[in-house]
Amino acid sequence: MSSSSSGPEATGRGVSLVTLGCARNEVDSEELAGRLEAAGWTVTDEAGADVVLVNTCGFIEAAKQESIGELLTAASSGARVVAVGCLAERYGRELASELPEAQVLSFDDYGDIAARLDDVLDGRARPAHEPRDRRKLLPIAPAGRRPAPGRQLPGHGTVAAAQPGADSPGGAIADLPEGIAPASGPRAVRRRLTGGPVAPLKIASGCDRRCSFCAIPAFRGAFLSRPPADVIAEAEWLAGQGVREVLLVSENSTSYGKDLGNLRLLDELLPALAAVPGIDRVRVSYLQPAELRPGLISVMTSTMGVAPYFDLSFQHSSGPVLRAMRRFGDTRRFLALIGQIRAACPEAGIRSNFITGFPGETADEFLKTADLMASLPIDSIKLHQLHAVEGTELARMYRAGEFVPLALEEYVKTAADFLERLPDRITIQRLYGSAPLAIRVAPQWGLKNNQMWFAIVNELTRRGTWQGCRVE
Q: Per residue in 48-73, pLDDT tens?
């Protein structure tokens, strides 16, 4: 979570931004901050704000509860409260009904965010939107997609048109006040809310994949790339703000360019970004294993200034379980992919996520995934206990009683058996000598699952098998 720092001198309209969730939300908050300052609002800290704008996360239950807690905390400060972001988009009127303390806004309000906050400050309530499946706002065929009229794509309007008075299709502002816009070059509708040399840079929004456990495409919409010129211009602006590393973010970075007629556009974009004066390193996140091409591997491992960092979510090793997840791959294919990366760059950094507890998963399939995780020559693993997210195919499976997950006791045993093997992995020694491998266990989906992970930790502690392994 991040919140805004103090802004310019007070103008009588002060707004504080609280950002929850992922790096994509950070970009969206900075776009909102830029738009608000361009309209005369002062971005300030929460204590002195007239309005608190909470950019919510709605991915999993814990994120929802955190977002609701932040909204209630903001309301208790006496400020007017506005909810934007994924939770607000996903639940709209329902959230507004359950949380009358907040004005709930949609992604489609981002282009007029200053006017919306003016209404809030003046006491003019606005009816919350009716949620819809945002995938249906764009054509099914990627090549036919353009931003839908009247629909905002957060993070896509952050570079304004060069000519005064000419707004870009993404809703960018052509003329910004002194101190926000540069004297020349791209005018970024973005105001940095945090300092430091690293900043996220959005290259696309939405996702065309249909993973059965994920609800994100329904409220973020179909995949849509930002034009390369906009991405490069924003990188130039960020460099002017002191940024030295840009982290490229999207829901699926390997799909970049498919809607622009060039499946290899990311291969071309990365060297161009690395060549931006002042940018020392470009890092890519959210790579889809099924779409990772040899050419992209080559670019990422051989281009000066591009970090050989591969953020890959394998999720499981069992072919049948992966098909039920609506994903592709298996142990053989994943090992082959890692082999390609290591052959190109032995010191490349690789991380992955895995899910356990998918309906129908057997103890044998879990142990096969454990075998894969224990043998993968990668650097960081995050193991998730599955949660049936509302509105997903997975949730419908549970409601229909099609599958029954393994018993708690069986998970304690199999997960403990798996985790205690990790300290012996050869990859711990591969680059870092005796330095521990980072294994992050995510106990974030309710009391029962927390109890499960505590039981796993207790079992491993009893066995004395944590040596050489750091659990976060």
A: 789 999 999 987 777 888 999 899 99
